[in-house]
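Sample entry (109 residues):
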Amino acid sequence: MSRRPRWWAIGRILVLALILHGVFLGYPFVRLGQWLGLEGPVWLLLAALIFFSQLICRWPLRQVAHPAARFLKQILELFLALSPLVLVLVVSAEVGLYFELATPQRLAV
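Predicted structure, serialized as tokens:
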């Protein structure tokens, strides 16, 4: 019986991490954008920035000394800090939508 290579296990972990990243960080902000009626290239750029914010602040901004770069890193990390709260709020709003307790326009305000 042959063992799978080490890269196979690393690949599985990366796929799981990307799925969790999409659920915790991507989904709430995409749904909020849909409720607010944001469309087009501006919304796509904003969604991409939010989704890839952790890759940007963990890799290129890992060890920065310039105050502006540190400020940018803190702003990008803010999305990660807010993502559990936003996820809970969006899921609870989705439950309200499912049971027709509210409309998307009312939830977006």
